[in-house]
Write a structure and sequence with these properties.
Elements lengths: L5 E3 L14 E2 L23 E2 L6 E3 L16 E9 L5 H23 L21 E7 H6 L30 E7 L2 H15 L3 E10 L32 H5 L14 E10 L1 H5 L3 H8 L36 H5 L10 E2 L2 E7 L5 E11 L6 H9 L8 E11 L11 H4 L2
Antiparallel strand pairs: 1-4, 2-3, 5-7, 5-8, 6-7, 6-13, 9-12, 9-13, 10-12, 11-12
Helix pairs in contact: 1-3
């Protein structure tokens, strides 16, 4: 079994209590309303009985970190930390080594369905692993603070500014980034608390964001999920079965710097959806903005959800059926030199904003071997004329280097921190 697969395992001390059985999906992926329309990574997965949801386990050790190609879970937490002030880079590096050791031990135990080694809270005692994943990344500022500036990848250079950005620096970037996902809310929160407690005095929370997706078993059969705009969202995600998938998503073994071999780069954005404005549009108007039918996600040019867009097709009036500024057209890989990224986002709803509108939208997370060949060219194109941009605000942004998975006995980032 590789590190990103799920399998039935014997339920551990956090014993899974019986749940009402019904057919459901092992996981569903949602694409990015602010990045590009994607294909659900689990659209072809067989249905899974609900009684097995808690017993599925994802491996911590392996070539790649978990939480990248793992089927998207129903609950998620994103959290960024800044290293605490230390006496100097050497001391900061020493503290970072100790922290990554603690975090790696905790993550491996929790993902196996075991309690945390030190002071477990008991929040998830009755549950199995529930496909828990914990993924770690390093921000651009981490390297200078730990005396590792020479090891900082060029791919971590700041993202370019986009005209549609309305970024809050307090909720952007960070020295360290942790992504937590699980198919049970208590299991996910249990991992979040354990990671926060393990940080101790070595790092302080910079920002935290919480998200959700459709729960396993919520639909009669596996299908592409919908975002908070009601759109089928996740149709054209790269698939691991495609021959160039690894090339697009993961840093090659011969890549530079060497410690990033098998790793990937995560772009993280909080994209608020202006739902009140969106919902004032009629369904046909919404479909013109996206370029796809709302009912089933099929292109306006016809066919089913997975039918290729016919970008040259015109209607009886001679006009393009998929408008020049439709989101599906502008974000299509063939319109962006083949640029592609693996999207694993979560929806969020943080109540009502000060202006009285829903503070809701998408926690956009995309993975690629190089953000300059993945996220950046697509977002530049969208920034210049995407019809959807009228209905979204990009409110925070982060870029993180996520190293390859640790081997047995290693901790995440060991090849960087001990280089």
């Amino acid at each position: 079994m590789n590190e990103n697969s799920t399998s039935q395992v014997e339920i551990s001390r956090r014993r899974l209590l019986g749940t009402v059985g019904a057919a459901g999906a092992a996981g569903l992926a949602i694409g990015a309303a602010g990045g590009a329309v994607a294909h659900a990574s689990t659209a072809d997965d067989p249905a899974t009985a609900l009684t097995t949801v808690g017993s599925t386990e994802v491996m911590f050790h392996g070539k790649h970190q978990p939480g990248i190609t793992t089927p998207l879970q129903s609950r998620g937490h994103l959290i960024a930390f800044d290293l605490a002030a230390a006496a100097g880079p050497a001391a900061a590096r020493k503290d970072a080594i100790a922290l990554m050791r603690r975090w790696s031990v905790t993550a491996s135990r929790l993902m196996a369905g075991k309690p945390a080694a030190d002071g477990d809270t008991g929040i998830a005692l009755d549950a199995g692993p529930s496909s828990l994943t914990v993924t770690f990344g390093f921000g651009r500022t981490f390297f200078g603070r730990t005396g590792l500036a020479a090891q900082r990848p060029a791919a971590l250079d700041p993202l370019p500014a986009f005209s549609s950005d309305q970024l809050d620096p307090r909720r952007s970037e960070g020295d360290l980034w942790v992504q937590i996902g699980a198919n049970d809310g208590l299991v996910a929160f249990h991992a979040l608390r354990a990671i926060q407690k393990d940080a101790g005095k070595a790092a302080r929370v910079r920002w935290q964001m919480n998200g959700f997706n459709r729960s396993p078993g919520a639909t009669a059969h596996p299908m592409t999920a919908r975002n908070l705009m009601g759109q089928v969202d996740g149709t054209r995600n790269p698939k691991p079965s495609e021959p160039d998938f690894d090339q697009r998503i993961f840093v090659p073994a011969e890549g530079r710097p060497g410690w990033m071999a098998g790793g990937s780069y995560a772009v993280v954005r909080r994209i608020r959806m202006l739902l009140d404005n969106w919902e004032r549009l009629s369904v046909p108007e919404q479909e013109q903005v996206i370029g796809r039918r709302k009912s089933d996600g099929a292109p306006l040019t016809g066919g089913s959800e997975t039918t290729e867009l016919d970008l040259d097709k015109t209607g009886p009036d001679g006009k393009l059926i998929v408008a020049d500024n439709a989101h599906a057209r502008i974000s299509a890989p063939e319109q962006n030199g083949g640029a592609a990224m693996l999207r694993r986002p979560y929806s969020f709803h943080d109540g009502i904003a000060a202006d009285g509108t829903p503070d809701a939208g998408l926690l956009f997370i995309c993975w690629q071997a190089d953000p300059l060949k993945g996220f950046v060219p697509v977002q530049r194109k969208l920034d210049r004329g995407d019809a959807l941009s009228t209905f979204i605000h990009h409110e925070s942004s982060g870029l993180f280097a996520v190293p390859g998975g640790p081997e047995s006995g290693e901790y995440v980032g060991q090849r960087l921190l001990e280089s």
